[in-house]
Amino acid sequence: MKEIQYEIVKEIAVLSTSDSGYTKEINLISWNGKEPKYDVRSWSPDRGKCGRGITLTEKEAGNLLAALKKELAQ
Predict the structure, then answer these.
(1) Mind listing the pLDDT tens digit for each residue in 14-67?
(2) Which fold is adopted by the domain 6-72?
(3) More confident residue, 74 or 56
(4) How far is CA 19 from CA 15, 24, 50, in A?
(5) What is the DSSP letter of 44?
(6) Rounded-to-integer distance, Cα 73 and Cα 1, Å
(7) CA distance 43 to 66
(8) CA 60 from centroid of its chain's CA atoms
(9) Cβ(36)–Cβ(49) below 8 Å
């Protein structure tokens, strides 16, 4: 199985922290040397392990932001 490589290009925010120390974060990450994308997922305290997450292009992140602003304004 191919090893997945990542580089956290920019740390944006920690959204929450669990009792076990895992954090749910949004970051700008380059996966396997590709163009960085916005990424939301949980990370172990040492960032050695990560959970499943979602990656978004800049356009997708903008669409999500607009949708959330509309939803939360209600």
Answers:
(1) 999 999 999 999 999 999 999 999 999 999 999 999 999 999 999 999 999 999
(2) Transcriptional Co-activator pc4; Chain A (2.30.31)
(3) 56
(4) 14, 12, 16
(5) -
(6) 45
(7) 26
(8) 13
(9) no
Distances (CA, A) of 58 to 3, 27, 48, 49, 53: 26, 12, 26, 25, 16
**Rg of the chain on CA atoms, in Å:** 14
Q: Record the tokens describing residue 29, joined without a space.
A: 């990450």
Cβ-proximal residues to 57 (8 Å cutoff; 6+ apart), any chain: 37, 38
Cα–Cα distance measured from residue 59 to residue 49, given in angstroms and rounded to the nearest whole number: 28
- pLDDT of res. 7: 95
Kindly list the domain boundaries of the chain, sorted by start residue: 6-72
User: Can you give the pLDDT at residue 24?
Assistant: 98
Could you give the CA distance from residue 25 to residue 31 in angstroms, rounded to a whole number? 16
Please give the structure tokens belonging to residue 4.
């997945």
